[in-house]
Amino acid sequence: MKALVYHGPGQKAWEEKPRPTITEPTDAIIKMYKTTICGTDLHILKGDVPAVTDGRILGHEGVGIVEETGSAVTSFKKGDHVLISCISSCGKCRYCKKGMYSHCEKGGWILGHLIDGTQAEYVRIPFADNSLYHIPANADEEALVMLSDILPTGFECGVLNGKIQPGNTVAIVGAGPIGLAALLTAQFYSPAKIIMIDPDDNRLETAKRFGATAIINNSKQNAIEAVKQLTNNIGVDTAIEAVGIPATFELCQSLVGPGGTIANIGVHGKSVELHLETLWAHNITITTRLVDTVTTPLLLETVQSKKLDPQQLITHRFKLSDIINAYETFQHAAKEKALKVILTNE
């Protein structure tokens, strides 16, 4: 089969790899139908995730069709259309029993990280009964790719960890796909203001269409002053960091008001400064999290009821075999006006 293979920082190739086989009775082999590229894949290519080694197939999102199942798989059979979770869960360890699937002692985020991932014609999914979801008949499978990772990530790591409540003020730093996913799902809780901050005017206009009440281009405006003007000089109740670089985490520390929460979503490859000299007396909560995907069933229901439209996050479409060009587009998102790309295995 063909797959997108990592060969060290800055190096990737679309090449021939052995087709995966069942290695444990809880495995399933999925023929990929649609997948996508994540900002985390770009962090890997920058060398920010050293656990990813030469020869690894990248990718941790997508939908597909069950090709084969191990003898212990009971919930899925050949021919089933499935959504692949970016997190693999054994369902039995102490962390899984707490709903902390990202810390599963045998799984967690392993696809495209510690084992071969979904940017391929076929993928092996461990713990299939706990790591796949049936796709309802007549569902928009392309849109459901957004439920593999970015929507539960934005919701769990940003909105839920950020403790957003009705009437709150929220600032989201970063209007990329994850930030926009947080914006879409934050509206479940009716905050009074959602302020989107990004240096890209196109993404800010998209955020405005998606429901942001205010947009700030921090390459042209002083974001701290602008947010203070919007919040009666108080700061926001929740500041969501959705980029993963020191400057944006530092900005969140300046935006949050007393008693507020900084919810980190971004994947950080470098250390950041924590300004305790300013925050020590401000009753600030700082949260970190890797998505657990515990909200995926809820989000599936929300999409099926048309209360949430993930399709609007998709801007570009490619054949899976054209994945190198898809990466070029995604890596130059501002120039290409790209949010999420869809790759179809034809």
Automatic annotation (TrEMBL):
<dbReference type="InterPro" id="IPR013149">
    <property type="entry name" value="ADH-like_C"/>
</dbReference>
<dbReference type="Pfam" id="PF08240">
    <property type="entry name" value="ADH_N"/>
</dbReference>
<dbReference type="Pfam" id="PF00107">
    <property type="entry name" value="ADH_zinc_N"/>
</dbReference>
<dbReference type="GO" id="GO:0016616">
    <property type="term" value="F:oxidoreductase activity, acting on the CH-OH group of donors, NAD or NADP as acceptor"/>
</dbReference>
<dbReference type="InterPro" id="IPR020843">
    <property type="entry name" value="ER"/>
</dbReference>
<dbReference type="InterPro" id="IPR036291">
    <property type="entry name" value="NAD(P)-bd_dom_sf"/>
</dbReference>
<dbReference type="GO" id="GO:0008270">
    <property type="term" value="F:zinc ion binding"/>
</dbReference>
<keyword id="KW-0862">Zinc</keyword>
<feature type="domain" description="Enoyl reductase (ER)">
    <location>
        <begin position="8"/>
        <end position="343"/>
    </location>
</feature>
<keyword id="KW-0560">Oxidoreductase</keyword>
<dbReference type="InterPro" id="IPR011032">
    <property type="entry name" value="GroES-like_sf"/>
</dbReference>
<keyword id="KW-0479">Metal-binding</keyword>
<protein>
    <submittedName>
        <fullName>Alcohol dehydrogenase</fullName>
    </submittedName>
</protein>
<comment type="similarity">
    <text>Belongs to the zinc-containing alcohol dehydrogenase family.</text>
</comment>
<dbReference type="InterPro" id="IPR013154">
    <property type="entry name" value="ADH-like_N"/>
</dbReference>
<dbReference type="InterPro" id="IPR002328">
    <property type="entry name" value="ADH_Zn_CS"/>
</dbReference>
